[in-house]
């Protein structure tokens, strides 16, 4: 399923015209620090929104994700639906214990892939609307025995605009 | 010049002296049976003694890391806190295994294996469990697959077949005790009447919040408040993870259905044990652990009642908790 989502992510970007690029701070659970890069493309009266981001949860893991969806701008506000998303966690040092009880030394880049659709609501600030803030909800699946919501807040700057 | 050489020699000698304090602050994962379990080891590894701490249902490992755990236990021993399968920050993609309770016990043994692998085969390990973790730790002791110096059961629900009856008896006993002396006699009377006609597990569970409220109003227990606890809940553990995991995964419900208990096999326990219970703990009444304790055949055992505690004696009576834990570990390490 993850491969299908990646292919869809690629084709969703073909044929659109870039409108703006913004980047900035991303806080997962408010406090886990990270960064994001947004690309907005013209898609008729809507925007196609693509975002990559990462954060570090110092005690347990770091994670990166790619999201693609459609956004609607109304004045300073923008709401986006992000049906296509892939989320990858990268765990800190990991030891594997096999069925026979033997322990294997820490393997690097252990982690899990998740399908991660989401929603976001954002607002632009300053006279030129270059400062952007956003509240984002991603839903990771399958996570443990159900799903897992992730809340990100971002504050960023439009580094390029058509 | 000679003075300089002398002073330098003294400094070098002091620097080379082996210290028994060796503080560690390790975070890693243990991957076992499809799940990745975060483990946080904190404290003094110099004594080569480690307490492996199991959390209760719907909780997470670092929830304990406060007060007596930091100031008393970690200053002398290493403490390993870990998030159990489906809880806290643990991760997996797979479906719930059929024998989930057995797999969770194997998880504990897997974490033990990694701790031994990482810190040396001569590491002296004590297994401690709180609430649901108390029952799990007891089951691990009975499996006898790992070498433990002792078992510490903190407010463990050790017999799920009698838990509803034990809760009912505690509420009735305390209500009768308070009827003559409390400022809130009407409320105790109402609780007493409701408890007398309640029979099922859910009915009695529903009365616990009123019981806890009255116990607090009568100031029978010490107040619990801690900024470190809030930090642990909101920052070190993502509260969304805690809430969501607890919503999807409640192994205790399965354990209740199966009537899990260690009472019938407690006579097989051969290692030293320390049982700690809060006198007013309605979640895990001390009578629920007393039967198992009585069945343990040897004399290296101690049952301590915390007179001013509910379900978390390490929070409400931290000094006494630290002293009891240290006395036990020092005696049997």
Write the layout of secondary structure elements.
The complex is a heterodimer of chains A (162) and B (333).
Chain A: H1 2-12, E1 17-28, E2 32-43, E3 46-57, E4 61-74, E5 77-91, E6 94-97, E7 103-107, E8 113-115, E9 118-125, E10 131-143, E11 146-161
Antiparallel strand pairs in A: 1-2, 1-11, 2-3, 3-4, 4-5, 5-8, 5-9, 6-7, 9-10, 10-11
Chain B: H1 2-16, E1 23-32, E2 35-44, E3 49-54, H2 67-76, E4 78-82, E5 91-92, H3 100-119, E6 124-130, H4 132-143, E7 150-154, H5 163-179, H6 185-197, H7 201-205, H8 208-217, H9 227-236, H10 239-248, H11 251-257, E8 273-278, H12 286-295, E9 301-306, H13 313-316, H14 318-332
Parallel strand pairs in B: 3-4, 3-6, 6-7, 7-8, 8-9
Antiparallel strand pairs in B: 1-2, 2-4, 2-5
Helix pairs in contact in B: 2-14, 3-4, 5-6
How many strand units of chain B? 9
What Rg of chain A do the Cα atoms give?
17 Å
Task: Name the shape of chain A in a single word.
Answer: elongated
User: What structural class do the secondary elements of chain B suggest?
Assistant: alpha/beta
How would you explain this protein's 3D organization?
The complex is a heterodimer of chains A (162) and B (333). Helices cover 7% and strands 70% of the residues of chain A. Chain A has one helix and eleven strands; from the N terminus they run H-E-E-E-E-E-E-E-E-E-E-E. Chain A has one domain: Beta Barrel (Porin), CATH 2.40.160. The termini of chain A are far apart. In chain A, a hairpin with a 5-residue loop joins strand 6 (94-97) and strand 7 (103-107). Chain A is mostly beta strands and 162 residues long. Chain A has one helix at residues 2-12, and strands at 17-28, 32-43, 46-57, 61-74, 77-91, 94-97, 103-107, 113-115, 118-125, 131-143, 146-161. Chain A has an eight-stranded antiparallel β-barrel with strand order 1-2-3-4-5-9-10-11. The longest helix of chain A has 11 residues, at 2-12. In chain B, strands 1, 2, 3, 4, 5, 6, 7, 8 and 9 form a nine-stranded mixed sheet that branches. Chain B is built from 14 helices and nine strands. Chain B has helices at residues 2-16, 67-76, 100-119, 132-143, 163-179, 185-197, 201-205, 208-217, 227-236, 239-248, 251-257, 286-295, 313-316, 318-332, and strands at 23-32, 35-44, 49-54, 78-82, 91-92, 124-130, 150-154, 273-278, 301-306. Chain B has 333 residues and is α/β, with parallel strands linked by helices. The radius of gyration of chain B is 22 Å and the shape is globular. In chain B, 47% of the residues lie in helices and 17% in strands. In chain B, helix 3 crosses helix 4 (132-143) and helix 5 (163-179) packs antiparallel against helix 6. The termini of chain B are far apart. Chain B has two domains: 19-161 and 239-332, Alpha/Beta hydrolase fold, catalytic domain (Rossmann fold, 3-Layer(aba) Sandwich); 164-217, no CATH class. The longest helix of chain B has 20 residues, at 100-119. Chain A binds chain B through residues 29, 31-32, 57, 59-61, 89, 91-97, 101, 103, 106, 110-114, 142-151, and chain B through 27-32, 36, 38, 40, 62, 85-86, 89-93, 95-96, 109-110, 113-114, 117-118, 235-236, 238-241, 244-245, 247-249.
């Amino acid at each position: 399923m993850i491969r299908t989502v990646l292919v869809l992510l690629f084709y969703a970007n073909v044929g659109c015209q870039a409108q703006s690029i913004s980047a900035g701070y991303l806080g997962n659970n408010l406090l886990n620090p990270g960064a994001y890069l947004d690309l907005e493309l013209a898609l008729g009266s809507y925007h196609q929104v693509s975002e990559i981001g990462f954060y570090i949860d110092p005690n347990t893991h770091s994670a990166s994700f790619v999201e693609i969806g459609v956004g609607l701008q109304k004045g300073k506000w923008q709401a986006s639906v992000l049906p296509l998303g892939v989320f990858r966690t990268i765990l800190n040092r990991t030891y594997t214990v096999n069925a026979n009880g033997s322990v294997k030394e820490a393997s690097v880049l252990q982690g899990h892939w998740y399908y991660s659709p989401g929603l976001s609501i954002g607002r632009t600030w300053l006279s030129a609307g270059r400062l952007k803030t956003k509240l984002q909800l991603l839903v990771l699946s399958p996570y443990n025995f159900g799903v897992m919501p992730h809340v990100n807040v971002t504050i960023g700057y439009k580094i390029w605009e058509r | 010049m000679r003075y300089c050489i002398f002073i330098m020699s003294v400094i070098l000698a002091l620097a080379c002296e082996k210290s028994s304090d060796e503080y560690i602050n390790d975070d890693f994962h243990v991957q076992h049976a499809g799940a990745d379990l975060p483990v946080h080891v904190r404290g003094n590894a110099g004594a080569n003694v480690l307490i492996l701490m199991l959390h209760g249902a719907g909780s997470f490992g670092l929830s304990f890391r406060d007060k007596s755990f930091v100031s008393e236990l970690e200053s002398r021993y290493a403490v390993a806190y870990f998030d159990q399968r489906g809880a806290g920050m643990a991760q997996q993609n797979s479906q719930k295994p059929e024998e989930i309770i057995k797999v969770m016990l194997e998880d504990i043994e897997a974490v033990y294996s990694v701790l031994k692998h990482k810190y040396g085969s001569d590491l002296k390990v004590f297994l401690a469990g709180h609430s649901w973790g108390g029952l799990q730790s007891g089951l691990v002791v009975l499996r006898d697959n790992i070498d433990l110096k002792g078992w510490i059961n903190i407010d463990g629900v050790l017999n799920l077949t009698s838990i509803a009856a034990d809760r009912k008896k505690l509420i009735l006993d305390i209500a009768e005790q308070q009827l003559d002396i409390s400022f809130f006699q009407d409320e105790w009377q109402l609780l007493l009447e409701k408890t007398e006609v309640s029979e099922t597990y859910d009915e009695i569970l529903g009365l616990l919040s009123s019981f806890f409220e009255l116990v607090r109003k009568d100031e029978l227990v010490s107040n619990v408040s801690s900024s470190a606890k809030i930090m642990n809940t909101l920052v070190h553990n993502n509260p969304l993870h805690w809430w969501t995991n607890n919503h999807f995964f409640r192994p205790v419900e399965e354990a209740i259905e199966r009537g899990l208990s260690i009472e019938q096999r407690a006579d097989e326990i051969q290692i030293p044990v320390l049982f700690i219970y809060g006198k007013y703990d309605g979640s895990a009444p001390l009578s629920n652990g007393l039967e198992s304790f009585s069945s343990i055949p040897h004399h290296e055992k101690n049952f301590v009642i915390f007179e001013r505690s509910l379900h978390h004696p390490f929070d409400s009576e931290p000094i006494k908790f630290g002293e009891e834990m240290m006395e036990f570990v020092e005696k049997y390490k």
